[in-house]
Design goal:
The protein is mainly α. The protein has nine helices and three strands. It has one domain: Orthogonal Bundle (hpI Integrase, Chain A), CATH 1.10.443. The longest helix has 15 residues. The chain starts with 8 loop residues before the first helix and ends in a 20-residue tail after the last helix.
Length: about 200
């Protein structure tokens, strides 16, 4: 799936945050949480624990069929607390006429912003960043993406969800998403002048 290079995510987030509307906030939340579109679009307020800073996605909405806990960073919490609530809807990101926000809403927003990425591709952006720019172990990034363990032996022994380590990983991702575009400067050495005595 088309994905944005992780070095460009800060500039993209700056532009995305200038956009109004529930679709823009849903895409921002999707990027910050590194979640799948359906997990994000169908999120309800009952899944959010603001006090403990955890979003618990129920198993019936997860690809692996098991509940998944997502650590909520300060930017995620700020986004959630500033959202309007639609009366009669439990969805965090409701469609304008009620009900769930459509998948096309996020895809069309990416097109309007002229980005060569799809919503699901931002998970790849996150994964590339974690692998290439951090020292977090592979299994922490994989757990953040709620990927299933391919090894039956490893799956039989691993019982935890590495939540405390993922808190720090998601805080680092949050900070990276707030960085402006990286600019490489060219430095030209200047020779010291020789003064006549």
């Amino acid at each position: 799936m088309p994905a944005l290079p992780y070095k460009d995510i800060g500039a993209f987030m700056l532009e995305l945050r200038k956009r109004e509307g529930i679709g823009a906030r849903a895409l921002e939340f999707l990027i910050l949480t590194a979640c799948r579109s359906g997990e994000c679009r169908l999120a309800t307020w009952g899944e959010i624990d603001l006090e403990n800073k955890i979003w618990t996605i129920p198993g019936d909405r997860m690809k692996a069929g098991k509940p998944h806990r997502v650590p909520l960073t300060s930017d995620m919490l700020k986004l959630l607390l500033n959202l309007p609530r639609l009366e009669g809807s439990s969805y965090i990101f409701p469609a304008p006429r009620g009900g769930a926000l459509s998948d096309m809403a996020l895809s069309m927003l990416c097109r309007r912003m002229n980005v060569k990425a799809v919503p699901h591709g931002f998970r790849s952006t996150f994964r590339d960043w974690a692998a290439e720019s951090t020292n977090y172990p592979r299994e922490v990034a994989e757990q953040a993406l709620a990927h299933t363990i391919s090894s039956a032996v490893e799956a039989a022994y691993r019982r935890g969800d590495l939540f405390n380590k993922r808190v720090k990983l998601m805080e680092a991702w949050d900070a990276h998403c707030n960085k402006p575009l990286e600019i490489k400067a060219t430095v030209t050495p200047i020779r010291a002048r020789r003064y006549a005595k």
